[in-house]
Amino acid sequence: MRALQKGFTLIEILIVIVIVAVLMSAVTLSFPPTGDKLLKEHGERFSALVGLAQDEAILQSSEMALEVDQKGYAFYRNENNSWAAYSEPPFSKRQFPAEIKSKMYLDGISIDLIDRDKDTPQVVILSSGEMTPFTYKLSYDDKSELTLKVGATGKIEQTFVKNE
Asked: Of the residues 8, 35, 53, 69, which has the maximum number of CB atoms within 10 A of its CB?
């Protein structure tokens, strides 16, 4: 006769591990990104949208523009020689969380993003794909900074600095 053995089988242990892993991933995904991850995420989105706007301007043979303010940015299209804001995704207005602050530089000169004419884009994207070169800095609670340097051809260089 076999003696009674106590313990768990390998299958029972694997099932528990899978359940714990699924619960941990659900909890991790339910928290919004913060800090450096949030800053990098918004920087990547901005870079992708600028590239997409450049492609759209080329494909549509029409000028586009980018307006930046302290809280976010918006894209515009040229309609009858005036700028009309996009209201539909992916070019609809984007807002940053309150922790993210932005600064813009044209030709190395800081642009005032607070007291400025609204609906007046600072960056023009031509139908040839060329655009106004600029530098865009995003900072998260003065703890980290992401610098996006956009050239006239649309090439974007990213630099991330964490302030200790």
From this structure: 53
